[in-house]
Specification:
Blueprint (H helix, E strand, L loop, with lengths): L1 H5 L5 E2 L15 E4 L2 E4 L12 H9 L4 E5 L3 H14 L4 E5 L7 H12 L6 E5 L6 H8 L5 E4 L3 E4 L18 E4 L4 H14 L4 E4 L5 H9 L4 E3 L2 H6 L3 H15 L11 H9 L1
Parallel strand pairs: 1-4, 4-5, 5-6, 6-7, 7-10, 10-11
Antiparallel strand pairs: 2-3, 3-9, 8-9
Helix pairs in contact: 3-4, 4-5, 5-6, 7-9
Length: 270
Amino acid sequence: MIAAIRGGAGGIVAKTVSVIPAKDPRPTIRKCGAGLLNCETWSEASAESFLDAYRAIKREGVPLIVSIGYSPDDVARLGKMLEREVAPDAIEFSTHYVGKSLDPLLEVARALRESVQIPIWMKVSPSTPNIEELAIRAASYVDAFVAINSVGPALDFDIETPHATLGSNNSFGWLSGPAIRPIALRIVSQIASVQPKPVIGVGGIASGADAIQFFMAGASLVQVCTAAILKGASVYGAIADDMKTWLEKHGYASAEDIRGLFLKNLNNAN
């Protein structure tokens, strides 16, 4: 996390923690084309073991968003503890393992909202049905949406050595990187179109142009992970510099000036 800040990240979203640490099979992550496949679940360390690291990020003076999951009881317990011990700028909660029907997702959102005073962000899985209905109904509980999580299950292997590449039983994993960007853009635009809360775009962002796309689709912020794993922490500053150059070249004062531009043009065309 410190390396990301040094590399130019404007804020930190920490790895998801839960009440019970994960036990992930090895290997948990492999390169797949231009992206990554992973069979990780959440952190294998306890939330309590991260407290000193969270506090170190707070001392760096950048926004800290802690990520938690998964059940209503889990997020209520963790949210209270982290708000008390760390006072992060926001809590992001993952819905990846909560289920695909809307009521359980809303129950988690409600439980966290009733447990903390600080902003909460709902991270949306691409497999969630009725994305727009979820966004409309969840907007009464959450302060922002994060879209999307990795896509899958997916499979990849080398035809010269066709054996398992991940530690999961079937070598299936979750795909991240450039291949999922069009899916992420679609979901960001859906959520931004139907409710007023900010949307944070995630999925395949590796350049300033990629980030610009997300802002035009309605995002207010973007998150980057896979590109940093593949290219190093300096990718954060490079993306920000690319964005600044593009905005200046096109006569925009800030990214806010292009937020939702695609959606506006789409509405005008219709």
